[in-house]
Design a protein that fits this description.
It is built from 8 helices and 12 strands. It is elongated. The strands form 2 sheets. Strands 1-2-3-4-5-6-8-10-11-12 form a 10-stranded parallel beta sheet. Helix 7 links the parallel strand 10 and strand 11.
Length: 308
Amino acid sequence: MADRISTLPDEVLCHILSFLPTEEAIATSLLSRRWRSLWYSVPTLNFDDKSCRTLVVLKLKGLHVGDVSSFDLPLLKTLDLNSVCFLEPQHFMELLWGCPILEDLKVEDIYFKGSRCKGQFKTLTKLVRAHISEIQDFIIPLEAICNAEFLHIGQYSDEFPLFPNDIPLFPNLTQLEVIYQSDVACLIEWRLLIAMLKQCPKLQILVLDLRADTGYWTDWPHPNFVPECLSSKLRECTIINYEGVKSELLFAKYVMQNSRVLRTMKIYHNSGWYKFEMLKELSLCPRGSPTCELSFERSSDCVSSEDD
């Protein structure tokens, strides 16, 4: 008898698979080459409680998460969400709270149909790495990820808190990457960045990517203090898409003058003809570290962690 069901369009087959328990949908990948990857596109996943409790790695892409009151993922260590829609921010936070030993979190292109989020935010106490970008219409609570050692924030308009006092202590953070995205008119707010540095006493590596072509810069706030990480811990500082505007220059000088153990200051610029003037001005800047090396390269030559 001919295998007529395999001749159906992918959309129809995926719709059929969505009614099966997820384990059975995955098992269909063994039927033939035609079925091997179909379950990847199933819009609905239905795990039973036993399966969820044994998951160690969970990667979801292009899915809608329904009305779930709670999650129980006691063994999950890696969570990767890409292009996932939640009914409410509350459901997203419930997912995080259901992962008590989560170590690696990557969240990209997350959006919500509603805006409800209540309750006290909990800290992911075992978190080591957090990669957060493109969360729409929701301010992710930094308290949830403040135990991370590595933090990447792709700053859309809602991702950084509005006030410096909203930033919690990051006692374990050693590497911070802040990316100002290019396709929104975002504000490069220096006072928030300085406040963030103040809350990261162990920070050793700082990457600042100013890719916001349509963004704008606030005036340099001339802080009257030096964050602890600058005075005793920071070893590497990288500024990408440097244009040489006054506030950028003053920030670079602030880092170089106050970082006592800084080894490398890397500037990736966009202006070839302006390179000599930028290099000359920063080269004349006093340096807090006698071993600090200053380098200039084209931004096009920079490979960020997003490309890894």
